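Quick look at the format.
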Amino acid sequence: MSQFSIDLPSRLLLSLEPWRNATHWLIAFSGGLDSTVLLHLLAHLAKSESLPPLNAIHIHHGLQAAADAWPQHCQSVCDALGVPLLIERVKVQPGASLERAARNARYAVFGSLTQANDVLLTGQHRDDQAETLLFRLLRGAGVRGLSAMPRQRPMGQGTLIRPLLDVSRAELEAYAQAHQLSWIEDPSNQDRQFSRNYLRHQVMPLLSERWPQAQTSMARSAAHLREAQGLLDELAQIDLTQAATAHDFEWLGLPSLELASLAALSAARQRNALSHWLEPLTRLPDTDHWSGWTDLCDAAPDASPVWRLADGELHRSAGRLWWLSGHWLRTPMIDAEWQIPASALRLADNGRVMFSGQTPVGPLQIRYRQGGEVMHLADRGHRDLKRLLNERAVPGFVRGRLPLLFRGDELLAVANLPGLDGHLQDGWKLHWLPTDEDQGLS
């Protein structure tokens, strides 16, 4: 038995030490070499160590005839090791990349099964890490992409861990042979029309022949890039904290940043901060599409530029950036008059409005701004609504959505704007919740 295979259990145990108190260790078990060795290692460690309960998960994609025999193989392996196995069948959505679609389907199941304080363990190794780095380099990835696969990341309600990223495929093969393990060889892994297979079978052997430590060096570079990405994330948090200033429209419940704080940064820091901010909101733009950010910043001061992204829009208004998506991008329509003034009125694609205090005498109707509206103010006489909105620096995208309360042709109130939102002497105010969620009243 080689030194590598003797040393592997203790190395694995050391790498998993921080997660020894997890509720469950779930092993993503394809039946291939990597996951077979991982499962075998953990099952045997569990005999001498106090580990969380082990459970294996096999995802059956059904993409090829040979795969129909794999669940039975996985079941027999798990039965021999005394590890419970859950077999989940998924339907892979057709698309440009079958690999990506299968991965998305697989990880969707993993996410649904990983509960709070659970750890999902996957078998990717050092060679996989090197291939990932090279693959992403050829696609023009940035620092985040070139940092390759992280050792850990959130998964479902728990955490995904890749404990074998410092282990080579040769070490896994040596362990498997020493313990006479059998595993599945996926025929599709030989199909070199897939980019990863081409790199694995055509490119990596040539690199390793010239530079024997190529995969180790590339995996080390990925680790350096992960560290660099961590520093960029810290810098983004500093810059975003500076830009996350308070404003008068917190009640909109929209992600928002102060533009001046971002504009004071270098172009690279702007992109870094915005990428960090946008990542949970939308698919990030590619390098060429960042010209939209430049156009938004360079637009005339009195303009209301919009940068359209995959899952929403970034608006510039009232000195701030605003992220709009979902119903904020649909034109609101008024369904009917306010039949029962004392209750909340739901507005199509625009939340709801309600009164606090004394309900004004009707009949009442909610309308949206069309232009030319005039409002009578006790201390100022009649004033154009446009001027009143300008005075309060109401963001442009809000103006067509602000609920206006009319009695006949008389504009009684503009929801949520202090001094315009009710009648002081009669003791009532008009409140607008822009979404159907109960955000409370500002």
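Next, a different chain entirely:
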Amino acid sequence: MQIKRKETIYEGFYTFKKVYLEDEGETIEREQFESGNAAAALVYDTKQEKYILVKQFRYSAEMELLETVAGVVEDNDPEKTVRKEIEEEIGYEVDKLEHIGDFFSSPGACTEKVHLYYAEVSKKKAQGGGLEEDHEHIQIVSLSLEELLTQQLIDAKTIIALQWLSAQKGTHLKNPEAKSF
């Protein structure tokens, strides 16, 4: 299969493209959703010995989600972006940043690649909670390792981060009861 051409069919907050593919002489049309790439981090406060996640309303999921700190990559620099998002969303300066890996969130229709990190913090330098001008209403949630591993999560980047953390700690995710923050 080969991409022959693309054309923008909608451009707003996000972009949609029509993609024309050739497969064994046949032309196939598909739509492609472009949202930009994302940078995310599982954040650990070394002083409190707690993991810090954020809870916010996600309109596409039509509900609040508990998730890692994340944002759209700016200037093609995921590390710079994730440091900025940590300060904006939870108010901390990053002490240590470790790259976990990159993955596509939904490659069947979306171009988004997530750059996932583990971050350690110890110094709060701002309030956090997101940016007013971006209409972010972010609740900061701090959890112990045990609490974190028992959360009922449905956000892929957060689940992947916790799978990584479980492997690092030599433990596994618990079968959570039906509770969430």
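Helices lie at 78-90, 145-149, 156-169.

See the schema section for token definitions.
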